[in-house]
Amino acid sequence: MRKEYPDGTVAVHGIDLDIAPGELVALVGSSGSGKSTILRMINRLVEPTSGTITIGGQDIRGLSKTSLRRGIGYVIQQVGLFPHRTVADNIATVPRLLGWSRGRIAGRIDELLVLVDLDPKIHAKRYPHQLSGGQRQRVGVARALAADPPVILADEPFGAVDPVVRDRLQVQFRRIQEELGKTVVFVTHDIDEAVRIADRIAVLRTGGRLEQFDTPAAILGTPATDVVAEFVGSDRGLRRLAVTPIEETDLLSPMVLYLDEEIATARTKVTASDFDYAVVIDRAGNLRGWVSQRLMTGTGTVGDRRRRFDATIDYGSSLKDGFAEIVQHDVAWLPVLEGDRYLGVLTPEAVHSALRRLLPQRVVAA
After folding, report:
1. Cβ contacts of residue 109 below 8 Å, gap of 6+?
2. DSSP states of 170-190
3. Which fold has domain 3-243?
4. Where are the domains of the chain?
5. Adjacency order of strands within the sheet including 313-314
6. Which residue from 166, 241, 304, 361 could staple onto 300, CB 3.0 to 4.6 Å apart?
7. What angle do CA 312, 315, 320 make, to 5 degrees?
């Protein structure tokens, strides 16, 4: 697709994107790279000069603009809620236009408010000015999902909220998208946001030219052009931690003691090991805490002396999340779990080794 204005300005050059059903694609680039114009062409707020846009195999030019837009959810930065309508009425906007029954609409409102973690009994009757910025943004997401559209367009939806709320909204938006299987085209200028939530990223440059369309790991690991490399930044190795899952090869396996082992036996094991500490598990392999050599005095069992870990992390979480937990809790060991089952511990040294592995290797001339 291409968009050229009468004065000769080209907002979007020949862009060819094939987005799979249920995929979340992020469009990133600096101002003037055509990100928002692409969204507007998809819902025909702007007509392309040339090219074809299809949804589900159907050319959108064969649909009326009204029916097309009622089948697409739209989430924007400033939310765009009607200030004189309650939360429930805002969410009900499109279902009412589609002629849904009152009972069906009421059920859908409750369902969506629960989905975005807002209590229907508390929030349904409130007005937008009675909500926080993050709550208004969640209502905006609920409204976009109201008529169960297959496609969601999101134009920098979380750019106006503070960083802490933004992090939570990103996680929640991705969870909802995965649960419902919606196809999402998500515009952002923030590469970290794109890396965090997208299945694939399209990097655009000024004038609406596509530089690279690939997975976050590929964009960060092997930028296709200098423009992409400059956009993702020199610290892309750190960013790759966000898309690199914790694997068993990243884990250390310190001494393990069982909950029901006698203190005397356990103390002998720890004394003979390379560690002053041991991980405590039960006979099913579930994590039960830790114990140090200093704590193993007197009689009894390991379970009598154990201490609980301040933090754990799930296997398959990103190395970035693991490192964040290590820093936040100032720990040397972060147990990694698969369900309740203990797999090993992640250490700062392991994250550092992974980072070195992820960084592009430089060849230094002799």
Report:
1. 88, 91, 92, 120, 124, 146
2. HHHHHHHHHHHT-EEEEE-S-
3. Rossmann fold (3.40.50)
4. 3-243, 248-355
5. 313-314, 334-338, 341-346
6. 304
7. 75
Q: Do 21 and 150 touch, CB atoms closer than 8 A?
A: yes
**Cα 288 from chain centroid?**
30
Q: Kind and range of the H or E element at 38?
A: helix 35-42
Indicate the pLDDT class of residue 363, thresholds 50, 70 and 90.
Answer: very low
In CATH, the architecture of 248-355 is Roll (3.10)
What does the pLDDT look like over 153-205, one tens digit per residue? 998 888 777 888 888 888 888 989 999 999 999 999 888 889 889 999 999 98
* Cβ-based neighbours of 181, under 8 Å, separated by 6 or more: 21, 22
The encoded tokens of residue 17 equal 């994107």
Which pair of structure tokens corresponds to residue 65? 């603009």
Q: Is 5 exposed, middle or buried (0-12, 13-18, 19+ CB in 10 A)?
A: exposed
DSSP for 305-366?
A: H-B--S--EETTSBHHHHHHHHHHHT-S-EEEEETTEEEEEE-HHHHHHHHHHHSPPPPPP-
Q: How many residues are recorded in the chain?
A: 366
